[in-house]
Write the structure tokens for this entry.
Amino acid sequence: MQLNDDPHSPGVRAATDWEYAPAPESAAIGRIRDRYQMFVGGQFVDGNGDDLETENPATAQALSLVSTASPKDVGTAVGHARDALDGSWSRLSGGQRGKYLFRIARGIAERARELAVVETLDNGKPIKESRDVDVPTAAAHFFYHAGWADKLAYAGSGPDPKALGVVGQVIPWNFPLLMAAWKIAPALAAGNTVVIKPAETTPLSILVLAEIIADAELPPGVVNIIPGDGTIGRALVEHPGIDKVAFTGSTEVGKQIQASLAGTGRRLTLELGGKAANIVFDDAPIDQAVEGIVNGIFFNQGHVCCAGSRLLVQESVAQEVIAKLLERISTLRLGDPMDKNTDIGAINSADQLARITSLTATGEQEGAVRWTSPCPVPDRGYFFPPTVFTSVSQSMRIAREEIFGPVLSVLTFRTPDEAIAKANNTPYGLSAGVWTEKGSRILGMAGALRAGVVWANTFNRFDPTAAFGGYKESGFGREGGRSGLAAYLATDDEGAF
Amino acid sequence: MSTAPAQRRATTAALPARLADAARDESSIRGFLHGLPGVDPVGVESRAAALATRSIKAGSKLRAIDLAISMVDLTTLEGSDTPGKVRSLAAKARRPDPLYPEIPAVAAVCVYPDMAGVAAAQLVGSGVGVASVATAFPAGRSSLAVKIAETRLAIDSGATEVDMVIDRGAFLAGDYGKVFDEICAIKQECGTTRLKVILETGELGTYDNVRRASWLALLAGGDFIKTSTGKITPAATLPVVHVMLQAVHDWHGITGQRRAVKPAGGIRNTKDALRYLVAVREVAGPEWLDPFLFRFGASSLLNDLLMQRRTQIEGHYSGPDYVTVD
Amino acid sequence: MSDDAAFAEIRLSVPKTYKLFIGGAFPRSESGRTYQVTDASGKFLANAARGSRKDARDAVSAARKAFGGWAAATAYNRGQVIYRIAEMMEGRRAQFIDLLDSTGEQHPAADVDHAIDRIVHYAGWTDKLAAVFGGANPVAGPFFSFSVPEPTGVVAAVAPQQDSLLGLVSVIAPIITCGNTVVVIAAQRLPLAAIALAEVLATSDLPGGVVNILTGDPAEMAPHLAAHGDVNALDLTGTDGELRTSLERAAAGTVKRVYAPTGPDFARTPGTARLRAFLETKTVWHPTGPVSLGGAGGY
């Protein structure tokens, strides 16, 4: 870098090459082991399934081996959960139960930096996100639900709510630790015991959580963690010893689960896909809207079920918004997820990268105009540069199907009615965004959008106190808040349960 | 103000039609400013906070410190200022750390008009500018004639840059034309001397007003938009400067001209300064990482930059006794 | 007088034609089919319309058309409309008792009273739902977040096969209280109370299409409702066994919400599960806090 000698003349020799030096977090903090075991019945044990190799998607190199469950191990884990339920757990007062959850919340906070590193190495998300979002929010979920354990009578599910029993949970790879917290914390607060299966590509952080759970001296069998592939997930949700199933993942698998549980009387909640509209009106705070659009689709590489993957921008400001947007996206830093200055990390797996690549190819075939960020892309690992499609119409696949990657489809509208019609014109209904400075329009749009979460003049905000979940094919049931707790409680209703 | 329309034409003649029209008359200025998109406070603050987590390490940090030093307008604006104080400050400006002569000089020394001559004499041939506040700094509560006369005094005394204050009372009363005409008049008086327009954002109350005042100052020909006098709290804050950096960025998009930004007041340590540089780079653009286009109005910041520079070079933390107090 | 008496005949009653209730109107089944309704001893009581797949489709269309207006009505207005149903039922209390008596139900008077009181119970719920199931979320950040319950949409229901009035009312009332619209298949063997209720609804203030009542064979119509892309939720109270399983499986095709209780006791005061089953929770976020550059969120 050269400095301009004369501050009083135009900066022809300006310091334009000032680049941030790499600021990598230390991988050693993650204390990644050569091999991890399942956590069943309070013990770390080998499963009877084949070991799976989990990769660091930023390098496409092996990270660790993980012991997996066999279908028989599923039964064993469910048995431990049942024993724990019938044994100590159901006899514990709510207050004592809550104290275990408080311990876990503290344990996560104490090992936050380690968990963030593990998450980033295993998942590929930027360290700044695992550090600032995933891990602290996971701790917050345990802390929030801990407090419910002795206050369930006030949870809105009737005066004397009861636990449902043994809960089978299957979680995705996009927020491995956070989804574990979303699932385990309310289940335990309500007095259930848990068997949970992490995603095949991201089993590590939940197994560190298992250590925290063990250190918290949670009674054996209350939480059982069984890594494995989809067949183990299926064996878990279809196991007759399970009283309630909670699933977060694709709509396709969610439908299979719902069908497989038909007639069993088992309770089910589903948190599935989305194709959220992010709607920008001409009176929006444009610069913050641009930030919100960026955050909406590029947060976590777009591996977010509630991602704002469809930008609906009012025609009268479309040119300005799109110009600012592309300029802003060009400044996003793609690369080593462990670098604290990385904005966009790695795509979680080769499979997902292939899916994103193939779906975006259809965008061009169908006539949309593709723009790709000029950012440098690492030559190893799974990366996909931020991509924006303009001239998109509702009928194109990129406007209808969940891409689950850093790909934004831009559509325009002329009137609020058209915005509502286009936003709701999808089988999904998880989230939506609205950008306008007119208060009545914010509330009117919030009411008109058929989506479980509406972010107005912000996007992608999550909190354990605020219910999250979908309308329509985005699933049913909520996570967070009182309605999230209700998903894990039986209520005495007409003697129905 | 019979000359105002003529000044308007002179100032805005070269601008693209959209901006020239905006400055046509009182009502068009109002329409333009009120037509600017709003600023969502939480959004801009969270963006500023997110950028503040950028990690600046190693060689990048050292270069950033040198860059920041070169951007400092080393300031003393006290009733107790004496020629001795100003001379001492000017010496520091020329050579900030006697042990490390390779350290760049600061951009300018910033003083009251009656001290501009003292500073100028000390800085001859140094490349360090003399910035003088003017226009009844800091409150700006005087007649236009007095403000013009004070500007003239500063320039005649050797100021190479003039830091004026806007009439916040007029701005808050919605009398944008008055503010605009005053800036035009001072700019005309400045001629080629660069004009910094102090918005005193701490008195404007909202980000929307900061954005409007920024555009108003740019329209009226201000070379710099500057946050604060340093006499009001809050002075410069990251999100306020974000809004101003966005304004000069957008101004460049329309006009092709690069205007400058100067946060002043409250920037005391290296960490803060680096956060501003990150904001400059990512909001305005890398081209603004240049003392011609970005300054820090500060006094104690310089010594912290020097200490941190020593820490980088010497490999251990430095202490206040190892940098000069001037 | 005596001459008249000589010519007097026994007056024939005018029996009612029982039809479907769709979109506020009383059409026959488009299929033209009917089936015989008898009392407990097998004596003919009436012909009821035997609804078809297309009748179910028409009912869903009517329910969808009515949904926007009903969902958007104020909670107070919905409460008044539902309360008005109770008023109208009270006026025809004796008729309902006779009807239940004729079909051999066990406790006609108690059932009718319970049914009316159930409507009153739910009428009072409309403007409590948002407060009881929603509220402000104290999120950790500069945002105001609140959650509100919203109606799911169009609900298809199979009414209990017994308790032809109380069971039906217990199913319908919570669904519409939430702002949903409903297509309900009445008890197959005991459809007359349902059509009598439809006549009450038609003359109350309930907008057409909010409640649509089909009579006929649930096993014939319900699968089409369960698979229908414009139905948002199912209430399978009146099903069991293989039919229930197949309907739940069909519901998975569009991720419908399914409420399928076992052994409900309609004589008990209802809890809230039926309400919650057909409410979505919507969470809304907006920035709040700093109104000035001083930061610190001072107002």
In short: The longest strand of chain A covers residues 407-413. The mean pLDDT of chain A is 95.
